[in-house]
Write a structure and sequence with these properties.
Rossmann fold, 203 residues, 7 helices, two-stranded antiparallel sheet, single chain
């Protein structure tokens, strides 16, 4: 895995390609019907992801919900710590392979993991300084709880989560957790709503 400083111009060009995708996205589905959507993030969220990643200077980033990799590129564009890496989880193996090729061509320190997010999280071993969630909204809290139970969050880890305004009811248990646990958090009123939070330090 390459760890050189990312070529921001090449990342920006790849971002512009993906920004042309239909923002309504595509449904994930199987024999039981559709279950969730592969929607590209909105542009206002993308620039925030880059800026917040730059400010946090994480060594390890986890993204839950890759889609076609638009948010992955925005996150990767903010990596500035030495040897910083990004793991991203995508449900659809075919989509994951396309992202794997794209980040490989760009020489980015990104590992694309395909499979159900909770199943993939169960096999992770790194501790993450920043986590971005943009997968099944009613699973945000289980994702967070699984990361905590497995000790996969660094002290004071930054948590970012998309769609917490336009999908508020699905995200409510997740949002309520931060209030109930006195975790510092704000919801930024982007087009879809972005949660920005910092996990409490371990005592």
């Amino acid at each position: 895995m390459k760890t050189a400083t990312p070529d921001t111009r090449a990342i920006d060009a790849a971002i512009e390609e993906l920004e042309a995708l239909d923002k309504q996205g595509e449904s994930y589905g199987d024999a039981h019907g559709p279950h969730g959507w592969r929607n590209p993030i909105r542009r206002d969220t993308g620039s925030l992801l880059t800026g917040l990643t730059l400010a946090a200077a994480p060594a390890r980033v986890l993204e839950i919900g890759t889609g076609h990799g638009l948010s992955t590129l925005y996150l990767a564009g903010g990596l500035n710590a030495a040897d910083a890496t990004l793991d991203t989880i995508e449900l659809d193996p075919g989509v994951a392979e396309g992202v794997r090729r794209r980040v490989g061509d760009l020489g980015l320190p990104v590992r694309v993991l395909d499979g159900d997010a909770l199943g993939v999280i169960a096999g992770l071993q790194d501790r993450y300084d920043l986590v971005f969630m943009d997968a099944q909204k009613d699973q945000y809290l289980p994702y967070l709880q699984s990361l905590m139970e497995r000790g996969l969050l660094a002290d004071g880890a930054v948590i970012l989560a998309d769609n917490v305004i336009d999908r508020r009811e699905e995200c409510r248990p997740f949002l309520d957790w931060f209030s109930a646990n006195d975790a510092a958090h704000r919801v930024i009123p982007t087009e879809c709503g972005l949660l920005v939070a910092r996990m409490p330090e371990r005592s």
